[in-house]
Amino acid sequence: MQFTTATLLALLGAASAQKVHVVSVGSPNGTLAFSPDNVKADVGDMIQFQFRGGNHSVAQSNFDNPCTPIAQTTNMTGVFSGYQPVAASAAMGMIPTYTMMVAAKTPQWFYCSQAKHCQNGMVMVVNENTAANASRSLTAFKDLAKAATANIAPSTATSGSGNSTSGGSTGSTGGSTSGSGSSSGSGSGSADASQSSSTPGASSDVPTAGASVAGVSASMGLVGIVAALFML
Ligand SMILES: [Cu+2]
């Protein structure tokens, strides 16, 4: 799987000025944070979440409803890495990762759906834009999160367990670059499905919404392509 990851990154690197932004999720000593938690990224850049310790997730909300899957408040499916438990002793090359493509310059808000991690500040933003709206800062988002009455996990997406790069097999079945995004979200709704699968068929062409979902399936598609290359 490292091989796949390396190849994927090489492929992406070759595809122009795309950057990969690494975000650490948690740490071996139990930090409840994304680091960095405020990322500026261009459309087409990748964000690779590296799960460093504990049992965390990356889920997408909107600004106004932190700690709540974005699918519950909009018609977006949103991003969900599933839970990624990591032993504190895990070697660096063995940690799970989850990679998504940035599909918009507009602010995108994320949280960890584990326990009260979201309320405790385990949240982050991609492309904060306080110039457009000073009240929509990461600080303000953390304050809102602190007051959230519940921390809700999205229903498990197809990329749910394990490493999204090795999840390429899943991706290659669903993830075409046409970006319907339906590969995530409509998933199996396993044990922790505190969300009724209220994804109302989030069909593709929602402006920013569909866009970031499309980003995910596009990246999964790429992984699929990489996997396919290995089959040759
Ligand atoms: Cu967490």
Task: Sum up the structure in keywords.
Immunoglobulin-like; globular; binds copper (II) ion
Question: Can you describe what's shown?
Answer:
With 232 residues, the protein is of the alpha+beta class. The chain has one domain: Cupredoxins -  blue copper proteins (Immunoglobulin-like), CATH 2.60.40. The protein contains 5 helices and 10 strands, in the order αββββββαββββααα. It has helices spanning 2-14, 70-73, 138-146, 168-174, 207-231; strands at residues 20-25, 34-35, 38-39, 46-51, 54-56, 59-61, 84-86, 97-101, 108-111, 123-126. The strands form 3 sheets. A 4-stranded mixed sheet has the order 2-1-4-8. It has a 4-stranded mixed sheet with strand order 3-10-9-6. A two-stranded antiparallel ribbon has the order 5-7. α4 packs across α5 (207-231). The longest helix is centred in the C-terminal third of the chain and has 25 residues, at 207-231. The two termini are 17 Å apart. Mean pLDDT is 73; it is low at 157-232. Copper (II) ion binds at residues 26, 32, 56, 112, 114, 117, 122.
Q: CATH fold name, please?
A: Immunoglobulin-like
N- to C-terminal distance: 17 Å
- The CATH architecture name reads Sandwich
Q: Tell me the structural class.
A: alpha+beta
Strand order of the largest sheet: 2-1-4-8
CATH homologous superfamily caption: Cupredoxins -  blue copper proteins
The value of Rg in angstroms is: 16 Å
**How helical, in percent, are the residues?**
25-40%
Order of helices and strands: HEEEEEEHEEEEHHH
**What ions, cofactors and ligands are bound?**
copper (II) ion
Proportion of residues in extended strands: 15-25%
Number of strands: 10
Mean pLDDT: 73
Assign an overall shape.
Answer: globular
Q: Major beta sheet, specifics? A: 4 strands, mixed
* Low-confidence spans: 157-232
The number of helical segments is 5
CATH class division: Mainly Beta
